[in-house]
Amino acid sequence: MNAKVSGKSAAGQAEALPAQAGLHDAGEGDACCDVDGERKSHHSDKVKDNLVSRLNRIEGQIRGVKGMIEKDTYCDDVLNQIAAIQSALNSVGKILLEGHMKSCVVERLEQGDKDVIDELLKTMGKLMK
Question: Closest Cα to residue 24, out of 51, 44, 52?
Answer without folding.
Answer: 44
